[in-house]
Design a protein that fits this description.
heterodimer, A: alpha+beta, six-stranded mixed β-sheet, five-stranded antiparallel β-sheet, B: two-stranded antiparallel sheet, 46% helix, Ribosome biogenesis regulatory protein (chain B)
Chain lengths: 180, 305
């Protein structure tokens, strides 16, 4: 476990900013308790200072997880967000997409969101923008990237893809062994 | 018949070849230039600048031509020619003076020994073809490739292929020359930097040895040591990370600096005009587009009917 280097921090926040924009400040500047980001086995964890200090007594090989895993760095130093980060992404999301009840299951099985399943979308969402996906009952289901802007979405074929799937809560079951 | 008026008219038409100047004009006949150092008549210049300057140019040219005609001439079937003397004006160079090429090792050696380069003719007479051949190069006189017979020296192995031997020697010569060229270029580069080429080469070799020794799995730790060999210690820069238990305030400050940089780039990317205008009008608040809005409206309309 170690703090992120400046380069890693930059790459990590650049990715986060695609989903929550300026709200990344709220992750660092918290009124309740000091929180920090720590790297352990290429994974980035968001953890309270107190817990992190306790975890320093655990050896590197024995420490599996602490706090919330936001994602991991690839060997080529790219950052990949994991579904476990959804809790915070959903809280501070800039652009949102709501799927209709009939589109929930297809999305939770890892499919892209079709126009027919698109319930609502934040106004003025640009193309290729990171978005958080909710059910119509405002339950966060995952996140992805828009294939079309909001304006383009209006006049589309029902079978065209509107949001590309990136992660969904179905992974907790499907990829249980990989979720940390 | 009196032809004086006609002659006067002709005289008026063509100006005199005689030009008077207060200060004699300087000439550089080699470059066909005349330098007139006389003061300008400012009144005349102001009155009609074009006329005055034209007059001045004409006089200067006349003087220059007078000088040229005074030169010794030579008459040929093509016409009369005057031989111009060498130019006296010094003209500035357009390009800087080329730098001396760095001397090669051979050139240095030859200079010390006093060996002078003798210029040979490019072509030499070849008896076998009864004609001239280049001294070297393509189809050169020194080529032994198309010899139809080769003598086997007394002390040589009789079964040895003399042709193969000759071609091998040639490739070896070319390779040697190439390494020498490379060495000369390297030495010149070092000398240009003000480094002693010999010392630079030594340092380079030492560095290479160190690198090769550190290239084993144990970074040279378990390698067999030669006699009188220095023990090699490969030092690599270690990665350094901040401490886990650093003061939270300091860490936060560092992270915030990175965030500021990231957000600056992010903000610069998109300024959606419509969003900005709406933001001002509505004082923020989330705006959502319902995809089934039209359908719902239609249905409402139907139910009313």
């Amino acid at each position: 476990m170690r703090p992120l280097t400046e380069e890693e921090t930059k790459i990590f926040f650049e990715k986060l900013a695609k989903y929550i924009g300026r709200n990344i400040v709220h992750l660092i500047d918290r009124p309740d308790e000091p929180y920090c980001f720590r790297l352990q086995r290429d994974r980035v964890f968001y953890v309270s200072e107190a817990i992190m200090k306790r975890a320093t007594s655990v050896g590197r090989d024995n420490l599996l997880t602490l706090g919330v895993c936001f994602g991991k760095f690839t060997k080529t130093l790219k950052f990949k967000l994991h579904i476990t980060a959804l809790e915070y992404l959903a809280q501070y999301a800039k652009y949102k997409v709501w799927v209709k009840p009939n589109g929930e299951m297809p999305f939770l099985y890892g499919n892209h969101i079709l126009k027919a399943h698109l319930g609502r979308i934040t106004e003025d969402t640009p193309e290729h923008q990171g978005v958080i996906i909710y059910s119509m009952a405002d339950v966060a289901l995952g996140f992805g990237v828009t294939a079309r802007s909001t304006q383009d979405c209006r006049k589309l074929d029902p079978t065209t893809i509107t949001v590309f799937h990136q992660a969904d809560v179905g992974e907790y079951l499907r990829d249980e062994e990989h979720v940390v | 018949m009196d032809v004086t008026p006609q002659l006067d008219a002709l005289k008026l038409k063509y100006k005199s070849v005689q030009v008077d100047k207060l200060i004699p004009v300087d000439f550089d006949l080699g470059n066909l230039v005349a330098f007139d150092t006389n003061a300008l008549d400012t009144a005349a210049l102001k009155q009609s600048p074009d006329n005055y300057l034209q007059q001045l140019a004409r006089d200067g040219t006349q003087l220059l031509l007078n000088q040229i005609f005074a030169l010794p001439t030579e008459s040929t079937p093509d016409g009369v020619f005057a031989a111009l003397p060498a130019g006296t004006s010094v003209l500035p160079r357009a390009k800087p003076i080329p730098k001396d090429k760095p001397m090669t090792r051979w050139e240095k050696f030859a200079k010390i020994k006093g060996i002078n380069k003798t210029k040979n003719t490019r072509k030499v007479y070849d008896e076998s073809v009864d004609g001239y051949k280049p001294r070297w190069g393509y189809g050169g006189a020194n080529s032994t490739e198309d010899d139809w017979i080769k003598e086997v020296p007394d002390n040589a192995d009789p079964m040895e292929d003399q042709y193969a031997k000759a071609s091998e020697e040639k490739t070896a010569r070319i390779a040697k020359n190439k390494t020498q060229q490379l060495r000369n270029a390297q030495e010149a580069a070092h000398a240009a930097k003000g480094v002693n080429p010999r010392e630079a080469r030594k340092a380079e070799v030492r560095k290479r040895i160190l690198e090769s020794k550190g290239a084993t799995a144990s970074m040279g730790r378990f390698d067999k040591q030669l006699k009188n060999e220095d023990a090699v210690k490969v030092k690599r820069t270690k990665r350094k990370f901040e401490s886990n238990t650093r003061d939270a305030g300091v860490e936060k400050e560092g992270v915030m600096n990175v965030v500021k940089k990231v957000l600056k780039v992010e903000d610069g990317k998109v300024l959606n005009m419509t969003t900005a205008v709406k933001h001002v009008h509505q004082q923020g608040g989330e705006r959502v587009v319902d995809m089934d809005e039209r359908k719902k409206k239609k249905q409402k309309g139907r139910s009313k009917k």
